[in-house]
C-alpha cells in the first residue's frame, strides 16, 4: 500500500491520468456528435450526460494510469523483464552475485559482511568459506589468470568480466567479477567495466542456464563505488539495455528479474521504469 501511495503521488501518474482522461473525453464527444447526427437526438442530455461522460473518462484514465508491477513481456526477443522489491536469495531461480576480479570471499577483513557476496557466503554456504572457495576454484580452473597482486587474501587476478558458475541445488550461482581489487583490498569499477562484465554474464547464462530465469541485484553501489555515478534507477536501465542487446543476438533466458533492496526500491520512479521497459518493445 505504501508503494502504491508513492506511485500515486508522482507527476508521471497524474500526467498520464490527465492525458488518458481527456483523450477519453474527446473520443466520447466525437461519438456523441456522430450519434446525434445519425439518430437526430440523444436519450439524455445536460447534467446527466456531463456526469456520465466524466465518470467514464475518469474511470478510463485511472484504468490506464493505475500503477502495476514493473514487468514487461517481449515477443522479439521472446523474454520478460521484471523489477521487484525483495530478497535476492529468496528467489527461486538462478542468481547473480557480484564480486571482484580476485574472487576474494573472506569476511569481514576483505569482503563486507553486508555486501551481496557476504550475504551469499552466510546464507547459501552457512559461513563455510572453505567450501565456497573450493567451488569457485573448480569453476575457474580453466579460466586464464591475467596477473597477480600483492595484498591480503587472494592474489590471482582473473580480470573484469570473468564469471564463475557454481551449481546450487536445482539452480546456478553466477559469481560475476565486475570490479578490480587494489593492494588495499579496495574494489573499484567503471561503467565500461560493468558493461563488459554484463556482456560476459549474458554469454555465460545463454550457454548454461537452458533458458531458465535469472535474478540479479542492482549493480553499481557497494564494492564498485559507482553509486554516485550510476544510482539505482540508472543501474536498472543499464542492466536492462545490456540484457536486451544480448537477447536480440541470441537467447539468454526466459526472464530477467532485477531484485532491488527495499530502501532503494522506495526511491525509484517506478512508473518511469515501467515506461522505459515498455519503450523497448519493437515498434
From TrEMBL:
Record-annotated membrane-spanning stretches: 12-32, 44-63
Pfam families documented for this protein: ThsA_Macro
InterPro entries per record: Macro_dom-like, ThsA_Macro
Boundaries of every Thoeris protein ThsA Macro domain copy: 81-261
Superkingdom of the organism of origin: Bacteria
Keywords: Membrane, Transmembrane, Transmembrane helix
Protein name: Thoeris protein ThsA Macro domain-containing protein
Organism: Raineyella antarctica
Amino acid at each position: 500500500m505504501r508503494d502504491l501511495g508513492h506511485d500515486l503521488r508522482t507527476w508521471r501518474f497524474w500526467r498520464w491520468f490527465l492525458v488518458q482522461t481527456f483523450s477519453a473525453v474527446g473520443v466520447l464527444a466525437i461519438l456523441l456528435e456522430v450519434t446525434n447526427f445519425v439518430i437526430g437526438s440523444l436519450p439524455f442530455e445536460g447534467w446527466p450526460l456531463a456526469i456520465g461522460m466524466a465518470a467514464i473518462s475518469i474511470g478510463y484514465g485511472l484504468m490506464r494510469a493505475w500503477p502495476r508491477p514493473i514487468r514487461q513481456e517481449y515477443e522479439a526477443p521472446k523474454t520478460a523483464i521484471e523489477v521487484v522489491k525483495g530478497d535476492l536469495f529468496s528467489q527461486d531461480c538462478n542468481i547473480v552475485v557480484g564480486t571482484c576480479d580476485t574472487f576474494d570471499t573472506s569476511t569481514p577483513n576483505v569482503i563486507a559482511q553486508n555486501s551481496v557476496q557476504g550475504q551469499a557466503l552466510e546464507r547459501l554456504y552457512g559461513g563455510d568459506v572453505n567450501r565456497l572457495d573450493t567451488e569457485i576454484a573448480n569453476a575457474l580452473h580453466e579460466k586464464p589468470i591475467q596477473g597477480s597482486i600483492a595484498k591480503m587474501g587472494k592474489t590471482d587476478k582473473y580480470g573484469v568480466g570473468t564469471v564463475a558458475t557454481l551449481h546450487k541445488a536445482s539452480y546456478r550461482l553466477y559469481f560475476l567479477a565486475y570490479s578490480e581489487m587494489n593492494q588495499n583490498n579496495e574494489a573499484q569499477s567503471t561503467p565500461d567495466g560493468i558493461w563488459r562484465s554484463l556482456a560476459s554474464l549474458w554469454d555465460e547464462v545463454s550457454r548454461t542456464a537452458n533458458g531458465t530465469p535469472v535474478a540479479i541485484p542492482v549493480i553499481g553501489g557497494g564494492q564498485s563505488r559507482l553509486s554516485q555515478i550510476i544510482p539505482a534507477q540508472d543501474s536498472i536501465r543499464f542492466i536492462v539495455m545490456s540484457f536486451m542487446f544480448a537477447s536480440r543476438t541470441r537467447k539468454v533466458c526466459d526472464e530477467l528479474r532485477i531484485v532491488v533492496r527495499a530502501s532503494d526500491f522506495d526511491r525509484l520512479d517506478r512508473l518511469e521504469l515501467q515506461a522505459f521497459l515498455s519503450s523497448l518493445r519493437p515498434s
